[in-house]
């Protein structure tokens, strides 16, 4: 089946299918009148279980439309189609980013990694300044082009600072303990996700503290975090000798199980990264 036969969107010419999520498909599309090329995220509501995926796209638009930073993917508009007075599908028109995710093309050296970390921290700091958290930062949500420019993507789980989610949301291996226990999502939640992401980029391993070891869903929902069970990961510099000790210590601080023990803010993390980068160059 051709791309044109698979998907058609009024006002756009479909150029290619470029990605797929849990319930979404992303296309490269072009406006025939302006010749502008965009990315278009398409989600169809086939049953009631798809409602949350529609809501995530709507949330992504609501958050992204209030952001304006070079390290964050921009959104153009949200298109809703309705059947029987309910939303049947959504199409999010976004900036087309010609880049690879950092898990597909990790940095080759420490200065390159630090450059990615600094740009990521700047994008997150902008979100926090505007009152939002990403809440799902991980290597697959960081895109880097051939010039080294970073774009943070997939803000479907983004929310206002202090929000308490109705369900457990996040990615095992990067999820902060408070996310697993459905506690308030704050700037320090992003700091944890970011620390876990930096850890993977430098070691190619996920941290063991990302989720409580218990598989008992009741204990997850109880809201009690057993700090004694959340053992700290091995320092990154012990796994990768190229990692500066100062960077290793900063990452371990970011993934402290107790949010109170993490850096106070993303600007604080950014200042630390910039100081380490000035020495590492």
Mean pLDDT value = 89
**Helicity level:** 25-40%
Give the end-to-end Cα distance, rounded to a whole number of Å: 50 Å
Q: What count of structural domains?
A: 2
* CATH superfamily descriptor of the largest domain: Transferase(Phosphotransferase) domain 1
Topology-level CATH name of the largest domain:
Transferase(Phosphotransferase), domain 1
Task: Report the strand count.
Answer: 10
CATH class of the largest domain: Mainly Alpha
What does the overall shape look like?
globular
Low-pLDDT ranges:
212-225
Rg (CA only): 20 Å
What would you say this structure looks like, in words?
By secondary structure, the chain is of the alpha+beta class. It is built from 9 helices and 10 strands. The chain has helices spanning 3-6, 51-64, 110-129, 177-180, 187-203, 217-221, 236-239, 245-254, 266-280; strands at 13-20, 24-30, 37-44, 75-83, 86-94, 100-101, 132-133, 142-144, 150-152, 159-160. Strands 1-2-3-5-4 form a 5-stranded antiparallel beta sheet, covered by helices on one side. A hairpin with a 3-residue loop joins strand 1 and strand 2. The radius of gyration is 20 Å and the shape is globular. It starts with a helix and ends with a helix.
């Amino acid at each position: 089946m051709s791309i044109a036969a698979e998907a058609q969107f009024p006002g756009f010419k479909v150029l290619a299918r470029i990605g797929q999520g849990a319930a979404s498909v992303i296309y490269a599309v072009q406006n025939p009148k302006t010749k502008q090329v965009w990315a278009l995220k398409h989600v169809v509501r086939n049953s009631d279980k798809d409602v949350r995926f529609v809501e995530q796209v709507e949330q992504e638009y609501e958050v992204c439309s209030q952001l304006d930073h070079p390290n964050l993917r921009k959104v153009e508009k949200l298109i809703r189609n309705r059947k029987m007075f309910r939303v049947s599908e959504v199409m999010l028109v976004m900036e087309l980013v010609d880049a690879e995710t950092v898990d597909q093309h990790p940095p080759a050296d420490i200065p390159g990694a630090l450059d990615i970390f600094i740009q990521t921290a700047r994008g997150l700091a902008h979100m926090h300044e505007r009152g939002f958290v990403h809440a799902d930062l991980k290597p697959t949500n960081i895109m880097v082009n051939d010039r080294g420019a970073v774009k943070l993507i997939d803000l479907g789980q983004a929310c206002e600072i202090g929000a308490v989610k109705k369900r457990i949301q996040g990615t095992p291996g990067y999820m902060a303990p408070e996310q697993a226990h459905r506690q308030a999502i704050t700037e320090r939640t992003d700091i944890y996700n970011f620390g876990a992401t930096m850890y993977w980029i430098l070691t190619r391993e996920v941290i063991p503290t990302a989720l409580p070891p218990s598989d008992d869903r009741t204990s997850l929902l109880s809201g009690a975090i057993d700090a004694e069970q959340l053992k700290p990961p091995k320092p990154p510099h012990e796994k990768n000798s190229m990692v500066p000790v100062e960077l290793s210590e900063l990452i371990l601080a970011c993934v402290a199980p107790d949010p109170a023990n993490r850096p106070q803010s993303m600007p604080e993390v950014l200042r630390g990264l910039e100081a380490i980068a000035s020495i590492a160059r």
